[in-house]
């Protein structure tokens, strides 16, 4: 059983109160919540799990109060509508005291987990507020637990069932809300000031102009105010003439409106198909109109001081190029949320690779610049994306009604996969009493504007509930009132996903959060959903899985992400199936990074720009089999970039391949430090190496690992096949206390290209170690919950030579100490005497049931050694992966002790009963909550 622990919202350590509540709700047989305040923002993130509990008929009691009339009636009604939940209201109007309890009680069998502290059932209290709570475990103090339950029962008996008092409470709530609104002192004119992002952009733009730069990019996530950022910046610069280019008239009008709030003394106008304001100070023009020769030639080439191009990722087209080739302003400012294009046009090069400022979705959430969102991944049981059957539409409507929205009425956008389906969906929604319109690129600007006004304007009698569209609202359109986003199409691009999500992320006074409903079918690209939500552009599968495991803790701010069981499984399946190491995928990412930095990127560039995980590039190298030494980055670049000419010899490539495949994963720094020092100084004393390890990396008493690293570098660690492959790549000679560079290696380093590639690999490896692996424990070379291959395990356990680890291996390290790593695939099935069942099972977060290979008894040599581990002074280590779809690496779970050996029988592959032995493996460290849940679920 776990101990009691402190529960708080801590962004530094990726901890949120909501995650602990959700985890306990998933495992409980019954739950009780007693809080002073309940809001819609607080219950919405929990709606998916509450729905699952309703389906499982898990009973719940929720007690709140009319204290201060803070709890929102609609939230209470929604909870009470769940068949498994009973809601009561404790009336303080009938007493002389308040009601301010905050407790969450979860019954599991005969035990209780109880959270007591400061968190009400509001979104900020569960995600970002400074809150103090204590999770009281079942074994901490049974007497206290019983007292809490008894006290709750007293309050519950005194409280009023919601159905008996909700009408009266709603009236009192509304009266109190009106008093509060009437008492507010509202300023007549709100002074607009730049936010933190905009201030940083203004500062950087000044620097760029001071360097006489002619062009620059503002890369800014949807909803972060890039139009206002440009206006604030230009206000300080005070240009006489500005041209603001957009691709749609509606966007031009929105931009002009924003600039009008900043510039009061300038004349502003539109150049479009409907309006021709040629002579204004600040001209907001569609690119279609300005690219006509008769329009741009009305002006001298240097007429405009500044030209701002909105959605500048479109600037590769002919119409934009006509304008840019003609005008010569003081400065071109390009603005976009998505600078990378699928057609490989180099926007970065067009703007001289000058990124003035960049803020992505994750940064914007950190800065609280966006409205929080509650995302729900919902299973779409449609046969295909074109399914417009009654069953599917009923399922969509059931979910949009259940998950709801923030505000007095729904103002929703539904993204469909094609125009035909959008029209059908609109018709079917309307037949069911909704007011919707489908909108596409075929509609005129006037029709679009009127449709949007019908959606957001509460004063119109013909207002809309939903606009159903395909892709026309992916960018540019500012509809800040949107409070529900519905996605009914396959996610084929993380960029488009973020664009469509962004339609609801603009803050608005009457919108506390936006609800995002994503209907997830059985699509191959579902892995792009967590990629987009996490903002992790490395595409590292382990990172994606970690986000899925711990998503609400890892998501910045008060936003939340939820998946139902089937949609979650579909995403994991998609992650496992995704083929991300093919050369075409690598080439696309390579081109994007090359465009961004304006040169051929190094592997280190890929890492620091988080463009793509290094492991994908290395895996792609394995497909380059024309030379035995072809598995190197330079060789791959030669294959995917016609501008790069490979000038390295086969021997030089062999050196680089050894480092690439064996060393640079950064899981131990020793080999990398040795290489770095001998390249720079020709020689390195072992005593000096020990000092470097201790002073720079806090690694002490490490002679054994130094010996191991030297065996790796001189190849004696490897079996004959690998030894013979790399024996020509000699790095070091070793004397008693000295490590000396070989003459051959030293001679090769005289060539700049080879030397630069060597340093790139060494710098990359050390950077990865410092970022990912340095926080090891028990003076071991392993870090809890990081992943290691079998070869990594053998190397980091300091074995004298590499050995295969199939299940477990007992082997002496260099110092003749016995070590035994267990490599466990958790979801592994075998045929037992009773039935087909899992061989491995976690009984709790510190105990794993494990079975040895077949044909084992207590008399088997390896089993006897394991059972006599204390006498043998043997050390055991557990490495585990969920299933083989995860690849060849295992999570390090820490030291273990094997207990309770039991002889049993198991059927082999020929269905013959064989003897075997099972153990309970006791972990030294309880498995972290999110990792534990990932394995057991």
TrEMBL record:
Chain ranges of the Helicase C-terminal domain: 392-555
Molecular function in Gene Ontology: ATP binding; catalytic activity, acting on DNA; DNA binding; helicase activity; hydrolase activity
Keywords: ATP-binding, Helicase, Hydrolase, Nucleotide-binding
GO cellular component term of the entry, any: cytosol
SUPFAM superfamilies: P-loop containing nucleoside triphosphate hydrolases, Phospholipase D/nuclease
Pfam family of the protein (one): ResIII
Domain annotation Helicase ATP-binding: ranges: 207-357
Domain of life: Archaea
The protein's name in its UniProt record: Predicted helicase
Organism: Methanosphaera stadtmanae (strain ATCC 43021 / DSM 3091 / JCM 11832 / MCB-3)
